[in-house]
Amino acid sequence: FRLHESPEEEPHILLECDGSVLEAIQKHLKLYKIRRKVNITPCLDLSLWAVVPGEQAGDISASLPKSAAAQALVLTPDPRTEVMGWRLITKKGTNPSEIIPGSQIGNIQDYHRHRYKQGIPEGVKDLPPGVALPLESNLAYMNGISFTKGCYIGQELTARTHHMGVIRKRLLPVHFSSPLPEDSIPEGAEIFTESGKPAGKFRVGGGELGLALLRLAHINEPLCLNIGGDKVKLTADTPKWWPKTAGK
């Protein structure tokens, strides 16, 4: 998030990240600042909120009181997709329901369930470093990849696959026939078709919802996941917010 308002101001960029890898990200950024005078500091006095839209949600900025701008450091549409609502960053201790009229404070499980239902990955558990590929993780649909900027690590392979190749696997929302037992599914557990063909791998989930990296050729088939010798059936879904041209 760009906090400075004009080019004349000293640049201030606020980076939202997975808190479990805060130190690793700082080291990574410092490695690439070279000789530029850039200060990289964690903002431990801030709180991040997701403002998830309800059924009648519209542009919440139209209903905000004037005092909201003073209380919110950042209040902006989620850059990934409209179905994820807004991102709100405040000072710790601020009550977000005072900033967003008519809102109700949920819990983190509510947020994750909404993400899983929409097929939105977030953080290193959903997108394991060195394992998850940007295009298979649908980052091109979520403003997560630029095909016009200069070089970056993996740019050539990513651009070539996007423009010429076929993406055979994608991260998709899945729905289980019964709620998953907590913390009993190993990372990357294999998902199979009814005939026993490998269809993909489980990535993350909670309750009856989750995310899985699946071969697109099998997503319309009945699928199952082996948990302790028991087969749990699941179905995959293509998110409605994906671009209409999302065929590759």
UniProtKB/TrEMBL annotation:
A GO molecular-function descriptor: transferase activity
One term under GO cellular component: mitochondrial matrix
Keywords of this entry: Mitochondrion, Transferase, Transit peptide
Record localization: Mitochondrion
UniProt keyword annotation of Transferase present: yes
InterPro entries reported in the protein's UniProt record: CAF17_C, TrmE/GcvT-like, YgfZ/GCV_T_CS, YgfZ/GcvT
Biological process terms in GO annotation: iron-sulfur cluster assembly
Regions that span the bilayer: none
CAF17 C-terminal domain span: 168-244
Transferase in keyword set: yes
PANTHER family found in the cross-reference section: TRANSFERASE CAF17, MITOCHONDRIAL-RELATED (PTHR22602:SF0)
Protein name, per record: CAF17 transferase
Organism field: Turnix velox
Taxonomic lineage: Eukaryota, Metazoa, Chordata, Craniata, Vertebrata
